[in-house]
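Page 42, continued from yesterday. The earlier attempt failed because a stray header line got pasted into the input along with the sequence. Redoing it now with the clean sequence only.
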Amino acid sequence: MSANRDLERCGFCKKSRKLVERLIEGPSNNYICDECIELCHNLIHEERRTAGDSLGLRFEDVPAPRDIKAFLDQYVIGQEHAKKVLSVAVYNHYKRILAPPDEEVELEKSNVLLVGPTGSGKTLLAKTLARFLDVPFAIGDATTLTEAGYVGEDVENLLLRLLQNADYDLARAERGIVFIDEIDKIQKTSNNPSITRDVSGEGVQQALLKMLEGTVSNIPPQGGRKHPEQQYIQMDTSKILFVCGGAFVGLEEIISTRTGKRMIGFANPDAGAESTPATKDRQTGELLLQVTTDDLLKFGMIPEFVGRLPVITALAPLGEEDLVKICVEPKNAIVRQFKKFFELEGAELEVPDDVLKLLARKAIELGTGARGLRSILEKVMLEIQFELPGRKDVRRFVVTEQLVEGVKFEWPKAPDTGEPKRDPITPRKRRKARREAS
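This time it went through. Structure tokens are written below.
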């Protein structure tokens, strides 16, 4: 029996059982060794990866930076410098991953760091880019991440979201865009060494290093923490573009100290009439444009992490004029959305220019940028939207300054038709009535 086993050979490489670690028997006494299985696996994986390069964008199809910025202009108001920087960075990134290999020159990754106050358009820029390029996109929040082994999420869960958004198409996911928001919240808690571990600060920065640079990560398909019994999906991050964004509150003070430019404060008696929210926002925007890697290191980011985000650009706080444009100009502008909802009800909505300016000023007071516009307008329009679907007597609505200031909208008294009040018709009753009628 032992002699017969010694005669068994791999049907591909012809090696005997003694020369390989494992020989697997198939039907009709055919065998294959572990070395040939591994070789076949690598060949199939390489073919899939090569085939993946033909999915989506091709080298000659990468849009020029001017075209990328022109598309961003349709959705993002202002931030001209940031849009130019991001357009060039994205163009260079996809040219790098789609270019034929060159032994003389090695092109490195150019991940992007967006610095700017909340509501200035960081997330919208990344989303719009992914839509224009037709690549998978995933958003992650750095505040939920912790170092491996602690309560929270592993950094690999960011890649799992990207894979899920690509419908588990690994080749497409490996050329997608990952936006990590609130990246400033993983700063070091202190510049002094401590006996307690900084598991959600410096520890997360360390965990993100390899992923940002480019590595093969093991992704748990079920999500959550890793378990030895899970079958991992291996994802190459070298072709994934990482865009990190954060408000970096207090960074402008670090920059002003370095440059010697004093910030105007509201309690500054020498500032006089110049000490206004608009003036301070403008000064903050000018300072953020001068951000350097040294400023980020003083803020609490580690050198290795900053080094993997070579493209750094700042987004300025949005002024009154920008917020007015945001209300009406982009394709997804909030006023245009409300007008469409009213149009679907057979009604007309008008928002005068003076009301738009008042909305913008209130959003600036809230300090939440463009996000504040929607919350204010939603509150203003609540009563009208509540009554509109059931009213046919008023078909034109004008938003006034009084409504924005909180005066309740008064509907004209509905005409009495003399009909008794009916019970609300539920969707189930409506479907049942349609079935009976048919």
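Notes: The chain has 18 helices and eleven strands.
Reminder to self: strip header lines before submitting.
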